[in-house]
Amino acid sequence: MKRVHAMVSGDVQGVGYRYTLQQVARRARVTGWARNLRDGRVEAELEGEDAAVDTVLSWMHDGPPAARVTGVDTARIAPLGDTGFEIRRDG
User: Fold this and answer.
1) Domain for residue 85, yes or no?
2) Which of the residues 26, 36, 38, 89 is marked catalytic?
3) Is the residue at 89 inside a domain?
4) To bridge 10 with a disulfide, which of 5, 40, 69, 90 should be the other Cys (CB 3.0-4.6 Å)?
5) Structural domain includes residue 87
6) pTM over the 0.85 mark
7) Cα angle 17, 22, 28; round to 5
Protein backbone atom coordinates (compact mmCIF):
# COMPACT_ATOMS: atom_id res chain seq x y z
CA MET A 1 0.00 0.00 0.00
CA LYS A 2 1.36 3.41 -0.89
CA ARG A 3 0.26 7.02 -1.07
CA VAL A 4 1.72 9.62 -3.42
CA HIS A 5 1.35 13.40 -3.55
CA ALA A 6 1.52 14.68 -7.15
CA MET A 7 1.78 18.11 -8.76
CA VAL A 8 0.89 18.14 -12.47
CA SER A 9 2.13 20.98 -14.70
CA GLY A 10 1.13 22.07 -18.19
CA ASP A 11 -2.22 22.77 -19.81
CA VAL A 12 -4.18 20.67 -17.32
CA GLN A 13 -7.08 22.90 -16.30
CA GLY A 14 -10.28 23.29 -18.29
CA VAL A 15 -9.61 20.05 -20.20
CA GLY A 16 -11.33 17.49 -17.94
CA TYR A 17 -8.10 16.40 -16.27
CA ARG A 18 -9.43 16.04 -12.71
CA TYR A 19 -12.64 14.29 -13.70
CA THR A 20 -10.89 11.86 -16.02
CA LEU A 21 -8.27 11.25 -13.31
CA GLN A 22 -11.11 10.40 -10.93
CA GLN A 23 -12.49 7.83 -13.39
CA VAL A 24 -9.04 6.30 -14.04
CA ALA A 25 -8.36 6.10 -10.29
CA ARG A 26 -11.71 4.50 -9.52
CA ARG A 27 -11.21 1.88 -12.25
CA ALA A 28 -7.79 1.08 -10.75
CA ARG A 29 -9.28 1.00 -7.23
CA VAL A 30 -7.10 3.91 -6.16
CA THR A 31 -8.40 6.40 -3.59
CA GLY A 32 -7.47 10.02 -2.92
CA TRP A 33 -8.34 13.42 -4.32
CA ALA A 34 -7.52 16.06 -6.96
CA ARG A 35 -7.92 19.82 -7.20
CA ASN A 36 -6.94 22.76 -9.40
CA LEU A 37 -4.41 25.25 -8.09
CA ARG A 38 -4.46 28.96 -8.84
CA ASP A 39 -1.09 28.71 -10.61
CA GLY A 40 -2.56 26.42 -13.30
CA ARG A 41 -1.34 23.10 -11.92
CA VAL A 42 -3.39 20.16 -10.66
CA GLU A 43 -2.58 18.75 -7.23
CA ALA A 44 -3.54 15.18 -6.33
CA GLU A 45 -2.99 12.44 -3.81
CA LEU A 46 -3.32 8.77 -4.73
CA GLU A 47 -3.47 5.76 -2.42
CA GLY A 48 -3.70 2.06 -3.14
CA GLU A 49 -1.77 -1.04 -4.06
CA ASP A 50 1.64 -0.15 -5.48
CA ALA A 51 0.92 -1.38 -9.02
CA ALA A 52 -2.47 0.37 -9.13
CA VAL A 53 -0.99 3.71 -8.01
CA ASP A 54 1.79 3.31 -10.58
CA THR A 55 -0.80 2.71 -13.31
CA VAL A 56 -2.64 5.93 -12.42
CA LEU A 57 0.63 7.87 -12.21
CA SER A 58 1.56 6.63 -15.67
CA TRP A 59 -1.78 7.91 -17.03
CA MET A 60 -1.20 11.27 -15.30
CA HIS A 61 1.87 11.92 -17.49
CA ASP A 62 -0.41 12.03 -20.54
CA GLY A 63 -3.83 12.95 -19.13
CA PRO A 64 -6.96 13.26 -21.27
CA PRO A 65 -6.61 14.06 -25.00
CA ALA A 66 -6.97 17.86 -24.63
CA ALA A 67 -4.31 18.11 -21.88
CA ARG A 68 -0.67 18.96 -22.49
CA VAL A 69 1.24 17.65 -19.47
CA THR A 70 4.76 19.06 -19.09
CA GLY A 71 5.62 17.46 -15.76
CA VAL A 72 4.43 15.36 -12.83
CA ASP A 73 6.36 15.83 -9.60
CA THR A 74 5.67 13.17 -6.97
CA ALA A 75 6.56 12.45 -3.37
CA ARG A 76 5.69 9.36 -1.37
CA ILE A 77 3.72 10.13 1.79
CA ALA A 78 2.09 8.13 4.59
CA PRO A 79 -1.16 6.30 3.69
CA LEU A 80 -4.34 7.73 5.23
CA GLY A 81 -6.87 5.01 4.45
CA ASP A 82 -9.14 7.02 2.13
CA THR A 83 -12.29 5.23 0.97
CA GLY A 84 -13.00 7.04 -2.31
CA PHE A 85 -11.64 9.53 -4.83
CA GLU A 86 -12.96 13.08 -4.66
CA ILE A 87 -12.60 16.31 -6.58
CA ARG A 88 -11.77 19.02 -4.05
CA ARG A 89 -12.39 22.74 -4.21
CA ASP A 90 -9.71 24.73 -5.97
CA GLY A 91 -6.74 25.62 -3.82
Assistant:
1) no
2) 36
3) no
4) 69
5) no
6) yes
7) 125
CATH number at residue 49: 3.30.70.100
User: How many other C-beta atoms can be found within 10 angstroms of the C-beta atom of residue 19?
Assistant: 12
Q: Is 18 a catalytic residue?
A: yes
| Residue 90 included in any domain | no
Four-CA torsion 12, 16, 17, 20, nearest 10 degrees: -170
- 29: containing domain: 2-80
**Do residues 62 and 69 make contact, with C-beta atoms less than 8 angstroms apart?**
yes
Has 41 been annotated as catalytic? Answer: no
In sequence order, the 6+-apart residues with CB closer than 8 A to the CB of 60 are 6, 8, 21, 44, 69, 72
Domain tally, the chain: 1
Pick the catalytic residue from 18, 29, 41, 88. Answer: 18
Predicted confidence (pLDDT) per residue in 15-42, tens digit = 999 999 999 999 999 999 999 999 999 9
The pLDDT of residue 2? 96
